[in-house]
Amino acid sequence: MRLTFHGAAEEVTGSQHLLEVNGRRLLFDCGLFQGRRAEARRKNEQFAFKPESIDAVLLSHAHIDHCGNLPRLYREGFRGAVFCTEATADVAEIMLNDAAKIQMEDARYLPRHLKKGHPSIEPLYDQKDVHGLMKLVQPLEYHQEHELAKDVRVRFEDAGHILGSAITTLDVEEEGVWRRVVFSGDLGRRGLPLLRDPTPIGRCDVLICESTYGNRVHPPVTDIKSELLRILKDAVTVGGRVIVPAFSLGRTQQLVYFLNELFNEGLLPRIPVFVDSPLSSRLTRVYRRHLDIMDSDVQKILQNDHDPFGFLWLTYIGSPQESKELNSRKGAMVIISASGMCEGGRIVHHLAHAIDDVKNTIAIIGYQAAHTLGRRIVERQKYVKIFDRDFSLKAHVEKLNGLSAHADVHDFKWWFEKAAQQGGIGQAFLVHGEKESSTALAEVLREYCDEEPIIPTRGDSFVV
Ligand SMILES: [Zn+2]
User: Fold this and answer.
1) What single-letter DSSP state applies at residue 448?
2) Are residues 69 and 165 in the same domain?
3) What is the pLDDT of residues 206-226, one digit of tens each?
4) 333 and 291: one domain?
5) What is the total count of domains within the chain?
6) Same domain? 310 vs 336
7) Which of 71, 239, 250, 319 is most exposed by smallest CB count within 10 Å?
8) pLDDT for the residue 295
9) What pLDDT does residue 119 have?
10) Ligand 1 mean position to 53 CA, how many Å?
């Protein structure tokens, strides 16, 4: 068989890896490249292979850098099957429709702000393409083997990264010999709220493994639940707002889940909580539909509480009008809104409204990339620019760690060790990481593999 790396090679976006076996062409993921506009555009627009020649896509999870170019693949002629877990199918439909909507809006509004002569910004795909693509999706249950063909079997295991995320195990027969190819997708961590832990894999002949944080040890986990409780109690005392920028997929539901637990335990002070992001609300409905694949803590809660994402003082905000009305509301409150790095969406309005008052608190959860408003807030810059206006940062800033959805080097080591104990790893490829990160992880991985781990460059192809 032949393996070719078409994306997420020495970088962290555009995940897509092509496996050719017995005349079949299978694609692991079909993610969107993100980054500098023109370059990303070029990579997303044209595939390095014929879309109509792909027999099936095996989708690891519904983050846009893993599924975001599927509608483009459809638009360009792909009519094979897409296999993923049921939850991934549901989440992907929402994420892809949202991506299509944003692209269509950009195409309408951005040209006004671009210099003359700039090429027009056509959407890569629209909602019709998303609709067509979704018809090709065949959801599979976790841990169940599915025969793609007589000589190809696929199984999804828990990756513990986001709802529905999977490690893909592919058993392939070539000339009478069965071999196993494993694709980690994005590997999560043990002990994350809501999610089951990543499944340890057994012997694999070929491993394609992500390496986003292969050179990193995550900062110590703060006890987010008790930190939240402290922040909320302080807010009630002074009558301040607590603004929480949170990603719509995963982070928002984790936060609501913690607050719901505090409510059930009778510890939550009487403070209204608002989730103000239509995308977050839509995704939370998907979470509610898939409670059965969540961890044992959730199953325990469900015995007494049928909805871990709702409690008496929580409101999901819908229309822009309702969102604006929060501005004139008096007293203590919590507003959880997107985007997670404060770069767009309703959160920016809430920050502009709250940032220059010492009574208020901004609770930042997790990593904030360079050059984002979130980063400037974490750095506690004296003044920050919002909507081209300088605001003085007087609100308290709290930083909460411990919800990173990606494995760090200790988590990887644990996962590799398990594979080694159960038969070992043949040839490994490290993808989805910056060069330094992948190189550092190769050092760790080396001792568990038969062959020297390889860090492919985009376009590299190997007979395995
Ligand atoms: Zn991911």
Assistant:
1) G
2) yes
3) 999 999 999 999 877 778 899
4) yes
5) 2
6) yes
7) 319
8) 97
9) 59
10) 26
Whether the Cβ atoms of residue 26 and residue 19 lie closer than 8 Å to each other: yes
Is residue 270 located within the same domain as residue 322? yes
Tell me the average pLDDT across 337-351.
Answer: 92
How far does the centroid of ligand 1 lie from the alpha carbon of residue 60, in Å?
9
- Give the pLDDT of residue 72: 98
| % the chain with pLDDT above 70 | 98
Residue 43, pLDDT score: 93
Ligand 1 centroid, distance to 150 Cα (angstroms): 31
Question: Do 279 and 236 belong to one domain?
Answer: yes
Contact (Cβ atoms closer than 8 angstroms) between residue 78 and residue 25: no
Q: Among residues 363, 384, 400, which one ends one of the domains? A: 400
pLDDT of residue 118: 64
CATH of the domain at 245: 3.40.50.10890
Q: Mean pLDDT in the chain?
A: 94
Q: How far is the CA of 31 from the centre of ligand 1 (A)?
A: 10
Length of the chain, please? 464
Measure 321 CA to ligand 1 centroid, in angstroms.
Answer: 32
Question: Does residue 436 sit in the same domain as residue 291?
Answer: no
Q: Measure 68 CA to ligand 1 centroid, in angstroms.
A: 11
Report pLDDT for 371. 85
Are 303 and 327 members of one domain?
A: yes
Beta strands in 348-423 (DSSP E): 361-365, 383-386, 389-392, 396-400
Q: What pLDDT, on the 0 to 100 scale, is given for residue 296?
A: 97
Q: How far is the CA of 84 from the centre of ligand 1 (A)?
A: 14
Residue environment code for 319-347, b if the CB has 16+ CB neighbours within 10 A, otherwise e: eeeebeebeeeeebbbbbbbbbbbbebbb
Closest C-alpha to 84, from 29, 125, 135: 29
pLDDT band (50, 70, 90) for residue 114:
low
Note the pLDDT tens digit of each residue in 422-450: 989 999 999 999 999 999 999 999 999 99
Which residues lie near ion ligand 1 (Cβ < 5 Å)? 63, 186
Domain boundary among 382, 400, 418: 400
Could you tell me if 186 and 325 lie in one domain? no
Instruction: State yes or no: pLDDT of 117 exceeds 70.
Output: no
Its pTM stands at 0.94
Kindly give the distance from the C-alpha atom of residue 367 to the centroid of ligand 1, in angstroms, as a whole number. Answer: 14
Compute the distance between CA of residue 24 and CA of residue 18 in angstroms, rounded to an integer.
10
Domain that includes residue 345, residue range:
224-400
Task: Kindly report the CATH number assigned to the domain that includes residue 457.
Answer: 3.60.15.10
